[in-house]
Amino acid sequence: MKYFEDTTTFKYSWDQVVTGFWRRYPNPESSHVLTEDTLSRELKENKLYTKRMLTKTNRLPKWGERFVGNRVVKIIEESILDLQNKTLVTYTRNIGYSSVMSVVERVEYRVDTDNHNQTIAVRSAWIDSSVFGFGRAIQSFGLERFKKNCGKMVSGFNFVLNQLYPTHGTQLPRETVSHSKDRLSDAANKAKSIAKSGPYYASCAPEN
C-alpha cells in the first residue's frame, strides 16, 4: 500500500470554502467528472452527514487496458460537516475496479489558526492493489497519478471559489477568467456527451 499526504491553504474563509465545496463541479479541470448524485443527507447531533456518488473517467495507460475494460468508474463520497467546530471531513473511495486499484482519500477542511480568513485542507490518500505480480507497480502508478491530480483538484476548486467570491482570495486576471469560462463550457459539454454514451448512464443521475 502507498500513502500520500498533502496540505493546501485556500485564501478563502472556511464558510466560503464549505459553500464552494458543494459547487466545485464543473470547473475547467474537471472534464473527467461525468455525474454527481446525492444518495443521502442526514442531520444528526448538529452534524450534517452526506453521501454522494460520482462517476469519473481517466485515461488508462496501455498496460492498464488488460485489467480494466471500461475507463468510467463510480466513486462514493461521504462527508461530515461540523458547524460548531468548523470542520468538513470527506472520505472518498472507488467502488469500481477496486480489486485492480483502490484509492481511499480523506480530506479535512478547517480554519487556518494563523489566519482565520483562510482555510487549511489536509489530504491523505491510501492506494492499494491486489493484482498478483503487478500490485506494487500499480500502486506506484496510482500514487504518481494521484499526486498529479491533486494540483488539478486545487486549481479547479480555486477557480470555483474565485467565481463565487471574486473580491476575496487570489483573484485571477480578467483574461484568465474569460479563458477559463470557455474551458468550463467545453468541459461541461464534453462531460455530458461522455456520460450519455456510458453503459450505466440510465441508472445514474447526472452529477458533477
Radius of gyration over all CA atoms, rounded: 18 Å
**Could you give the distance between the termini?**
29 Å
What is the global morphology?
A: globular
Which stretches are poorly predicted, pLDDT < 50 over at least 5 residues? 171-181, 190-208
Which class do the helix and strand fractions yield?
alpha+beta
Helical residue percent band: 25-40%
Average of the residue pLDDT scores? 83
Q: Spell out the helices and strands N to C.
A: EHEEEEEEHH
Tally the helices.
Answer: 3
InterPro entries: PRELI/MSF1_dom (IPR006797), Slowmo/Ups (IPR037365)
Protein name: PRELI/MSF1 domain-containing protein
Domain PRELI/MSF1: 1-169
Pfam families: PRELI
Summed up, what is this model?
With 208 residues, the protein is α+β, with helices and mostly antiparallel strands. The chain has three helices and seven strands, in the order E-H-E-E-E-E-E-E-H-H. Helices cover 30% and strands 34% of the residues.
Write the layout of secondary structure elements.
Layout: E1 2-10, H1 14-21, E2 33-44, E3 47-57, E4 72-82, E5 87-94, E6 102-111, E7 119-128, H2 135-164, H3 174-197
Antiparallel strand pairs: 1-7, 2-3, 3-4, 4-5, 5-6, 6-7
Structural notes for this entry:
The chain is of the alpha+beta class. Helix content is 30%, strand content 34%. The protein has three helices and seven strands, in the order βαββββββαα. The chain has helices at residues 14-21, 135-164, 174-197, and strands at residues 2-10, 33-44, 47-57, 72-82, 87-94, 102-111, 119-128. The chain has a seven-stranded antiparallel beta sheet with strand order 1-7-6-5-4-3-2. Strand 6 (102-111) and strand 7 form a beta hairpin. Helix 1 (14-21) packs across helix 2 (135-164). It starts with a strand and ends in an 11-residue tail after the last helix. Residues 1-169 form the PRELI/MSF1 domain. InterPro entries: PRELI/MSF1_dom, Slowmo/Ups. This is PRELI/MSF1 domain-containing protein. One of its GO terms (cellular component) is mitochondrial intermembrane space. It comes from Bemisia tabaci.
